[in-house]
Amino acid sequence: MFSVQATELNWPEQPFRYYADNDSLKDLLNNFGANYRVSVSVSDKVNDRVSGRFTPEDPAEFLDYLAQVYNLMWYFDGAVLHVYKATETRSRLLQLELLTARELRSTLISTGVWDAR
């Protein structure tokens, strides 16, 4: 799964229905955000085309599905849903000197940054 989540998706349980006929994935994501009254920021590198009928029941599961199929990463910061290609990310190895891995995890959880996924 390619997703990071800064804030829980406590969005209303309202349906999102979308029919795409070679639409841009960016348009699908913007319509998805509009359905939940959430601003969406989509990377210019997200330039895939989509076709099909989309009827997701759960917003997070739908985003996870799109992330898996289109190699995306997404996170919601409480105000804006950010979506970009997984290839745009970097990984770095951090050497912890002043705290243990357990302490770092505890700090990330207490500040609301940690995502169990």
TrEMBL record:
InterPro entries: T3S_SPI-1_N0
Protein name (database record): EscC/YscC/HrcC family type III secretion system outer membrane ring protein
Superkingdom, taxonomy of origin: Bacteria
Positions of the SPI-1 type 3 secretion system secretin N0 domain: 18-84
